[in-house]
Write a structure and sequence with these properties.
single chain; alpha/beta; Rossmann fold; 2 domains; binds zinc ion
């Protein structure tokens, strides 16, 4: 099959690689029809990780089930499925508590596994024609009948939408709250959208890229351009001096200050006084 292979820092290429096979009776084989490039892929692409050359990247995947192992009972050939990026077993102590990102079974000796990711097990990614999915009954989200026409929407469920949603959960957002969201990249936009869906009254979306701020406004957030003055002051001014009720930091560890100096604490520092 063809797959996107990591060769080294800033060097990836589409190569012919061996087709994945069903290795365990609980495996499912998926023919990938939609996959995203994630901001996290850049950590590996830019050489920030120790991922080994030869690995296939891609952890946000969707496609059609083409083969199932003998022990798979829920998922059937022909199902359209989305694959959340964390691989879990569904039955270990952590999975049982809902902490599937820290599964103790799939990556022995470490907690947690993911497709095509540094330090998350030996699993290949889905920026490829086919993907082997361990514990397929647990890891495949079976999609509704409109999966083929809306696959570019549903593939967001593999990572970016639930990641943004989870930020609003961690923030303790309740219906009626106002919410300040730092960063209007994919995670920040999905967090802003999630805050709207979860009943926030005012959602402030802080960024400085006009295209991102326009998208934030389109999904119901109030754009805050931090190139036009302190975002904290702008949010205080729009909340009667009180600040937002809750806040989400959605910039990430490559945050930089307005002068371009990388400083991972910048948006945390700003986000803190924005909520009350
Ligand atoms: Zn991702
Ligand atoms: Zn587990």
């Amino acid at each position: 099959m063809k797959a996107l292979v990591y060769n080294g820092p800033r060097n990836v290429s589409v190569e012919n690689v061996p087709d994945p096979k069903i290795e365990q009776p609980t495996d499912v084989m998926v023919r990938i029809t939609a996959t995203n490039i994630c901001g996290s892929d850049l950590h590996m692409y830019e050489g920030r990780t120790d991922i080994e050359p030869g690995r296939v990247l891609g952890h946000e995947n969707l496609g059609e089930v083409v083969e199932v192992g003998e022990a798979v009972v829920r998922i059937k050939k022909g199902d359209m499925v989305c694959l959340p990026f964390n691989i879990g077993c569904g039955f270990c102590k952590n999975c049982d508590k809902g902490f599937t990102a820290l599964c103790l079974t799939v990556n022995p000796g470490m907690a947690g596994a993911a497709y095509g990711f540094a330090d998350m097990g030996p699993f290949n990614g889905g920026q490829a024609e086919f993907l082997r999915v361990p514990f397929g009954d647990f890891n495949c989200l079976r999609l509704p009948p409109d999966a083929r026409e809306k696959e570019t929407d549903y593939v967001m469920v593999a990572d970016i939408f639930p990641t943004g949603w989870h930020a609003t959960v961690l923030a303790g957002l309740k219906p009626g709250n106002s919410c300040a969201i730092y960063g209007a990249g994919p995670v920040g936009l999905m967090a802003a959208y999630s805050a709207v869906l979860r009943g926030a009254t005012k959602v402030f979306s802080v960024d400085r890229h006009p295209d991102r701020l326009a998208l934030a406004e389109k999904i119901g957030a109030i754009p805050i351009d931090d190139s036009k003055g302190s975002p904290v002051e702008q949010i205080l001014a729009q909340t009667g001096g009180e600040g937002a009720d809750v806040g989400c930091e959605c910039v990430g560890y490559q945050a930089h200050d307005p002068q371009g100096r990388e400083s991972s604490a910048t948006s945390f520092t700003w986000a803190r006084p924005s909520p009350r």
